[in-house]
């Protein structure tokens, strides 16, 4: 475990708000990676992808840069527009 992981773990135990923020950032990062991978697999620029999903290019950029909490509605809209199936999973915490 790296020093930063140890710090995050220790601080998360001490500060519930910090722990919630870390969890949300983990989710945002996973969404960012998945959306960018989908766009790249489709061979599209952010602008082209935005046109496909009916959102501004700036929204795509914010999602991919982990600067937005993408709602399930937004993710559902992206899935529908790109002929994908959105799945949501619950996994036990380690």
UniProtKB/TrEMBL annotation:
What Gene3D superfamilies does UniProt report for this protein, alphabetically? lambda repressor-like DNA-binding domains (1.10.260.40)
Ranges for domain HTH cro/C1-type: 35-89
The record's section on PROSITE patterns has:
HTH_CROC1
Q: Which GO terms describe its molecular function?
A: DNA binding
Superkingdom of the source species: Bacteria
Official protein name in the record? Transcriptional regulator
């Amino acid at each position: 475990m790296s020093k930063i992981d140890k710090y995050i773990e220790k601080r998360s135990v001490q500060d519930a708000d910090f722990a919630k923020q870390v969890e949300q950032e983990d989710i945002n990062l996973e969404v960012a990676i998945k959306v960018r991978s989908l766009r790249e697999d489709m061979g599209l620029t952010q602008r082209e992808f935005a046109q496909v999903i009916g959102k501004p290019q700036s929204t795509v950029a914010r999602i991919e840069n982990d600067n937005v909490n993408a709602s399930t509605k937004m993710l559902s809209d992206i899935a529908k527009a790109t002929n994908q199936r959105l799945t949501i999973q619950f996994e036990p915490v380690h």
